[in-house]
Amino acid sequence: MTHTFSVVELMLNASWVVQAVVLLLIGVSIMSWAAIFRKVFALKRVRRLTDAFERDFWSGGSLQDLYVVATRNAREGSPMERIFASGMREFQKLRERRITQPDALLDGARRAMRAAYQRELDALEVNLSFLGSVGSVSPYVGLFGTVWGIMHAFTGLAALTQVTLATVAPAIAEALVATAIGLFAAIPAVVAYNRFAHDIDRMANRLETFIEEFSNILHRHAGATPAGH
């Protein structure tokens, strides 16, 4: 408690530039933690829904039944489910236009799935660039506050006839707080960014693998009505 009070007291006595830097870093840190928690819950939900859809897809049921369910769950479903729906929708549209060439049907479905895949990947990467920016920029912002605070401290000490450790220490300490808060904002953001980037890469690999597997299924059904797989 005493340490916390002393830090607050140091900030109250700091120059307005250091105070502004500290307030900015605290605000960025709060936004960063909010983004981290949102991303944790979002990725957990995506994994759960993707696992459920994969179980249904490979259970041997009808592609048409899966497509009806996927269309109904367009907003609440998993990225894999929406990719599947995009491929099936294009596949069926091409067949309704009397296109019977397997390669043409497959190319159209693959293009639709690739477009849906890119949209899903962009959605998964929301806030990722923000966390990366916080992790890379925050230490430098804190360092700027520290440098400014030390310059301000030495300018004030120039007017004193006798300089002791007791007169120098508070000014230097209040300047160093900016760097400490910059690191406090940056470290969780960097850790979260690396973790989320790894999880998103794994999910992207799962989605790409599904596109290839589903393309093979569509290729087998290109010459007949897709009833099951």
Structural class comes to mainly alpha
Indicate the multimeric state: single chain
Distance between the termini: 65 Å
* Continuous helix count: 7
Count of spatially separate domains: 1
Largest sheet: none
Global shape: rod-shaped
Which residue ranges are poorly predicted, with pLDDT under 50 across at least 5 consecutive positions?
Answer: 1-5, 225-229
Q: Helicity, in percent?
A: over 70%
Instruction: Tell how many strands the DSSP assignment holds.
Output: 0
SSE run? HHHHHHH
Describe this structure in a few short sentences.
Pfam families: MotA_ExbB. The protein is mainly alpha-helical.
Question: Could you walk me through the main structural features you see in this protein, from its secondary elements to its overall organization?
Answer:
Belongs to the ExbB/TolQ family. InterPro entries: ExbB/TolQ_transport (IPR050790), MotA_ExbB_proton_chnl (IPR002898), Tol-Pal_TolQ (IPR014163). The chain crosses the membrane at residues 16-37, 128-151, 171-193. The chain has one domain (2-220). The protein starts with a helix and ends in a 9-residue tail after the last helix. The longest helix has 56 residues, at 165-220. The radius of gyration is 28 Å and the shape is rod-shaped. Mean pLDDT is 85; it is low at 1-5 and 225-229. It has 229 residues and is mainly alpha-helical. The chain has helices spanning 2-13, 16-57, 63-72, 79-96, 102-124, 128-157, 165-220. Helix 6 packs antiparallel against helix 7.
